[in-house]
## 1
Amino acid sequence: MRSWNVDDVMTREVLSVDAAASYRDVVDLLIENRLSAVPVIDAFRHVTGVVSEADLLRKIEYAGDEWPRLFESRRRRGERRKAKARSVADLMSAPAVVALSGTSIAAAARLMDQESVKRLPVIDDLGRLIGIVSRGDLLKAHLRADEEILADIESGVLRPYVDDEDTTVTAAVADGVVTLAGQVDRWSSAEIAERLTRQVPGVVEVQSSLAWRHDDRQTHGVRMGMGIG
């Protein structure tokens, strides 16, 4: 079973600027193309930073407010410097938070959350820009048809992991919610089926009523519980 990664959902035709671009150049580019940010690249397409609407708005936010305040934070001092910037080199946020080609959608989502960013430039193994992925792009996996999701579950989970002569498992998908029913030989098989099903792109939730004949939780170091199927 192949999991989706940023390469599957990213935008490949990426607009970018170099560090020498002017403030007005970036404003024009963002407005004309209805973008909220663009990566900054060097002559080798290496990503050196990102310049966003938030960076550009510092000039408006601090207009007429030239003097630093007493005990002003480092962040506020940095924002004030951006308000005086004329080129991308002084405007951009650097170093850029990027995702390497092949990064899973889940890992990209965690990175965005940890770094409080809305998009990630995607780079190849040489550090060159090859795409950009946004929060909205990561949600594309949940636009998959139920039939596609079910086909992945049957071919990537049920057949290779729980399909044998003593197993009767069925799966159904409705609006991304998967229902697993039937019986497997061991508890561990049921656990594997549920866990791998949750990892199929587009799955919103897994509802399982799988029963099992043999409880092998002690063998797997899992504490025994009630409600054994």
## 2
Amino acid sequence: MEHLDHAAFGWLTPVLSYVMASIGAALGLRCTVRALAATGTVRRNWLLTAASAIATGIWTMHFVAMLGFEVTGTEIHYNVPLTVLSLLVALLVVGAGVFAVCYGTARGHSLVLGGLTTGLGVASMHYLGMAALRLHGEISYDPLLVCLSVVIAVVAATAALWAALKISSPVAVAAASLLMGAAVSSMHYTGMAAVSVSVSPSDEALPGADAMQFVFPLAVGLGSYLFITAAFVALSPRVGERAATDSARHPGERPVAAH
């Protein structure tokens, strides 16, 4: 077994990854609040934005944290198709969970089903991302810690979906986002604690792309998406504000509900 370093750049990658997860959670919660106040295609669009924000935050958290992952005695590369697939899995499962909870008739059952589906999907995203690693050696896992990481993912996902339904004030959203960021980070580092690597030194070139060639530019791009979307959400009027503006422009007309 070789030495593993989960924070090769010190606190930079753990803190930055936590910030990205928290921003994605905050943006997702705010978009869900907007969705629940709307109907029709407007609701659908807000939910799509919420799902993409949460999923992007989770995925970016994972791979920003992975930038700090080093194994003594071998380089680390990433299989590009598997890495992209892990992002698509995150988007699909978070979207499924958000839509199931917001459109479900039985909120309790929808919350449990959505939390379970989303949590298992987030765990799948994590371990797909780990399966994308290419190094000189073999990776093995501690089954107990893997199971614990999956449980954390399910609990965190369920709590996130519950918060999306119940929390609306900006202060509560901020607090919930910080807790969700901590939960996602805990899931990641629990999963990473399960990892052991048996290195087989070799001079052969590793397949795939290294972190700075592929993961870093993609993480920067997705992080930029989060910040741009956050600015858009912050500047877009709420349903009530839009109705008030319409009333001011057309005082003789009744405001029309969003569809």
